[in-house]
Amino acid sequence: MSLEVEIVGGVSVLGAKEWDALTDGSPILSHAFLSALEQTGCVGAGTGWQPYPITVRDNGKLVGATPLYLKGHSYGEYVFDWAWADAYQRNGIAYYPKMLIAIPFTPITGPRLLGVDAMIQALLAKAFNQQINQHSFSSAHILFPDEPTAEVLRECGWLERKGVQFRWENENFADFEDFLSRLSHDKRKKIRQERKKIAAAGVVCKRLTGSEASQTDWDFFFRCYENTYHQHHSTPYLTREFFYAIGARLPQQTLLIIAEQDGVPIAAALNLYSDQVLYGRYWGALRYVPGLHFELCYYQAQEFCIAHRIRYFEGGAQGEHKLARGFRPRPTCSFHKISHPEFQAAIENFLQYEGRGISAYHNELEERVPFKSL
């Protein structure tokens, strides 16, 4: 075995097949998705997300890699360390750039140290540490890793931060009514009422895969996506060209849901999916209709999962209202290495305190799941 560790300029410079062979098949982690971010200006120069992937080759064959970025800010991460950055600034110490292993703008759990075996994953973690020391970065962060990645990081002594998200599971439901039958009476009744109001308002939803969606459909979705950010006085992270790209590159893993009222499109939601998991991502509306968000972002996606035998629907960050729609809480985590010894100790104490609160919150959420008692 002859291993060579190297930093490359981005996922785009790697072969799609060799990168994808290391992943779990998730579209979010695919070469198509990550290279589209690079090639359409969502990450790279001027964005604060500089691609910096570490690769491992064995006699020329790619056997390990990781989606690594140098970050000039903390936007688009969904694990918030703004207070840490502020503390550094108040003490006259630079927090940025920092190193980050994550899927940009995507709070979804999955592999982060991509290796053919545990030895390669451990080598990637070691290479990550070497980069921190060599370039004197303030900190390094690995967001939403799966359990195999988490085990490697625990063994390496990284600080662990706990979190909670919401996931819906398709328990081999025959149809949407079968799913509703498993919920408590009040939650079942509320969902039926919400869907009746949507139908009474003349709203009709259509589902389009990437191969079925036209450029006009993507242009309309982008208007909705952009409007969501403008309503919150913010700037969209992703470009129109990015959505064109993933629709073309992931035609059978992209689901666009468009709502029409009286034949006029008024809202849209975008999901990505694999054989086992559907990932809810973005939505927006140009006209307000009560309950439309729940219909477009949850019920339509749940029906799609049932019809296509997709087991999980990942709801993403935040949103206790997902509980009432049949989602369950699930633990998430992130890992952090802080170069400054005193800050490392202070952040470790904070994470222990925060972790106890997150565990209690998770237990509280479990008591509120809407399913009927057996």
Q: Describe it for me?
A:
The chain is an alpha+beta fold. It folds into 2 domains: 3-163 and 331-366, 3-Layer(aba) Sandwich (Aminopeptidase); 171-310, Aminopeptidase, CATH 3.40.630. Helix content is 38%, strand content 25%. The chain has helices at 16-20, 31-39, 82-90, 118-135, 147-155, 176-181, 185-200, 215-231, 240-249, 292-307, 341-366; strands spanning 3-7, 49-51, 54-58, 61-66, 68-71, 98-101, 114-115, 139-143, 159-169, 203-209, 254-261, 264-273, 277-285, 312-314, 328-338. Strands 2-5-6-8-15-9-14-13-12-11-10 form an 11-stranded mixed sheet. Helix 2 packs antiparallel against helix 9 (240-249) and helix 8 (215-231) packs across helix 9. It is globular and about 65 Å long.
Total domains, how many? 2
Largest sheet: 11 strands, mixed
| C-alpha geometry | globular
- By DSSP, the count of extended strands is 15
| Structural class by secondary-structure content | alpha+beta
Write a brief caption for the model.
With 374 residues, the protein is α+β, with helices and mostly antiparallel strands. The protein is built from eleven helices and 15 strands.
List descriptors.
Aminopeptidase, 374 residues, alpha+beta, globular, 25% strand, 2 domains
Can you lay out the helices and strands and say which pair or pack?
Elements: E1 3-7, H1 16-20, H2 31-39, E2 49-51, E3 54-58, E4 61-66, E5 68-71, H3 82-90, E6 98-101, E7 114-115, H4 118-135, E8 139-143, H5 147-155, E9 159-169, H6 176-181, H7 185-200, E10 203-209, H8 215-231, H9 240-249, E11 254-261, E12 264-273, E13 277-285, H10 292-307, E14 312-314, E15 328-338, H11 341-366
Parallel strand pairs: 6-8, 13-14
Antiparallel strand pairs: 1-3, 2-5, 3-4, 4-7, 5-6, 8-15, 9-14, 9-15, 10-11, 11-12, 12-13
Helix pairs in contact: 2-9, 8-9
